[in-house]
Structures are given as structure tokens and as C-alpha cells.
Amino acid sequence: MNLKRLYQAWLERLVLIITVATFVVWPFTCISDTLFKVSDYSFCKHTVNNQPIGSYDDSSSIDVRVGEELCLWLEIYVTRMGLIYLQSHHSLPVYAIWGKDGWLNGGMHDIGIKPENWIKQQDGILTKSRKSNDSGFTWRTRTKKKIISSGKYYVSILDANRKSVSEGEDGINVCRPGIQIKVINR
CATH number of the domain at 34-184, please? Predict the structure, then answer.
């Protein structure tokens, strides 16, 4: 009789451990994995059909008129964990924060996959991810900023947890594209 109670208590604890692991721990491990990486970016004048138009060479200073918009075009690679996040939340936040000369000078805004994008493009996204070797897919987006003064402009890219995102295949470097701007009065 005692052995039966011990076995019953052991089974109840095992079920509790499995339940906690499944519903409490596992979702957080999915979120802590990389949801996406920045595979390409370009500072440009604007975008058409999700392609950069009038790209700038970000290794040199560029001349811009006061009030002109500067656009940062991004191509992100959404990983399998990002797809799982997207399917469960119907969105995938990609946060952008503009900065200038080492100071943040704009609010954080979401340039990622919004619920309305997911609803419209769900079938295409799922088809792309099924054809991919690692269940990932690419997504193109952009962020814009009106230029009012000269300086070194940069954009910090953050994930759903508001953590810095890596760029490239190795995933080592933090993605913080920057460009030197010289304002001209013509």
C-alpha cells in the first residue's frame, strides 16, 4: 500500500514538472532565441516596392538639404523561432530607434510585421518558409527620419524583447547602421 502511494506521488510530481516545463519555461526559451537577423541594409532617398532607391555610400559623408528625409532600408531574415513567434502573436516587432552623435533623438517605433501584414501575406510567408532549408524567410522594411542638422546618424535595431539585433550570417556584430550627414542650404 505504501509503495502504491509513493508511486502515485512520484507520478503527480512528474506531471507537474512536465506541465511547468511545457507552459512556463519553453515559451521563454523560444523568445530568447534569435527571432531574426539583419541580412542587408542601405541608407537611401526612398524605397519603391520594398527596394532602396538612390542608395548612399555609408562610408563617406553625404550632403542633404534641411528637412529632407533619410531612409534606412532593411532586409531581415526571420528564423524558425521568429516564424513560431509570428504565428502565435500574429506580428513580429522590429523596433528602430534613430540616434545622432551618440544620443538617441527619436522614439522607438515598430517597423516589423504587423497583424494586417500577417493576415494579407500569411500564405506566401508560410510557403516561403516551407521551401527554405531552415524554415526561415526574408522580409523587407524601412524607417525614415527628417534631417535637420549635420552629424553622425545611426539606427539601433531591436527585437521583440527590445534587445539589440545582430547582422550577417555569423550573428556576432550588433546591427547599428550609421552614416555621416552634412546639411546644405540650397
Answer: 2.60.40
